[in-house]
Amino acid sequence: LLCKSDHFSITFKVKVNTKIKRRPKRKIYNFKKANWGRLNEDLGKVPWQGLIDCRDSEDAWHNFKTVLRALVNKHVPLITIKNKFGPPWFDSDCFSAYRKKERAHSKFKQSNTLANELKWSNSRREFKSLCNAKMRDNLYNSDDPALITKKFWSHVKSSSKGH
Asked: Mean pLDDT, to the nearest integer, of 104-117?
C-alpha cells in the first residue's frame, strides 16, 4: 500500500500513439555573403526625408523598417538552419564559444594542470555569460509584442527535456 487511507485507489494505463512534433527549419540571414556594396548603393537612393517626415513617429519607424527589410532581403541571402532542437538564440557566436570551451576542457583533461583548468573555467564562464545574454536579447528585445510570447515558449520548448 502506498498510503494509509480508507479510500480505494484508482489505477489505469493509457496507451497513446503520438508523433514527435518536429520544429520547422529556421531561415536566417547569411551576412558573410551579403552584397554590401549594392546594399549601400540602394540605401543611398532611398528618399529618406519623404519616408521619415511623418507626423507620427510610429509611422516613420514603420516606414524605415519596411524599406530597410526589403533592401536587406534583396541583398543578403538567407540560409536554413538544420538543427532540430537548438534554441533560436544559439547562433555562430555561441557555437564558437562552445567549441572554445570544449577544446579547453579536453586540453585540461589531458594535461591536468592548473593553468589549463583556469583557461577551461574562464571559457566556460564566458560561454555561459554569452548564452545568457543572447537568450535575454532574444526574449526581451523585440519591437513586436506578439513575438515575445512566441519567443518565450520557443525558449521553454528548447530548454525542456521533453523535446
From this structure: 92
